[in-house]
Amino acid sequence: MKIVRITVVSLLLLWFAVLVVHAAQIALKRKAAEMRTTSFLMAMQAQRFDLASERYAGEIDTERLERLHDDGFRLVSYSAVKAEYDDGCVCGGHADLTFEANGKPLHATAVFTVGSGYRPKQVCVLTPSGSERGPIPELSEWNMLVCGGDSF
């Protein structure tokens, strides 16, 4: 009877250890995705588009980004960058972004996907509530460049 108890306790401890290791791996992957996305957004905010391109998992047309900035649309701030664990992976997350559009602040939520090395692969800005997609062509341009489409 004693051997059965020891075996059961050992199996429970092993199961618990596997669970702890798995949770730690998820936490590390989330942190990596958050840090790399923050690093990308920091480069975008500083208007260092070549550096932002290096920190992005896809390709970005830096010349178009510079034109967009010259046209009066830029990332002013970001906050609440949070990666999520879903469907067995850390594949994306969300962040709060503030842009300046022709001298006026534009607050929006963005969703991002994670690519190789937990770098952001898409950063898609959602149309702010109360706004229509049409009147914000700069937001559509951002999404074309950094998200891969303007349907947000």
Return the CATH topology: Nuclear Transport Factor 2, Chain: A
Report the sheet-strand fraction. 25-35%
Q: Could you give the order of strands across the largest sheet? A: 1-2-3-4
* End-to-end CA span: 63 Å
Descriptive account of the structure:
The protein is elongated and about 80 Å long. The chain has 4 helices and 4 strands. The protein is an alpha+beta fold and 152 residues long. The model has no long low-confidence stretch (mean pLDDT 89). The chain has a single domain, classed as Nuclear Transport Factor 2, Chain: A, CATH 3.10.450.
Keywords:
152 residues, alpha+beta, Nuclear Transport Factor 2, Chain: A, 46% helix, 4 helices
Quick description:
By secondary structure, the protein is an alpha+beta fold. 46% of the residues lie in helices and 29% in strands. Strands 1-2-3-4 form a four-stranded antiparallel sheet.
Which SSEs are present, and which pair or pack?
Layout: H1 2-45, H2 49-54, H3 62-70, E1 73-86, E2 89-101, E3 104-114, E4 120-125, H4 137-147
Antiparallel strand pairs: 1-2, 2-3, 3-4
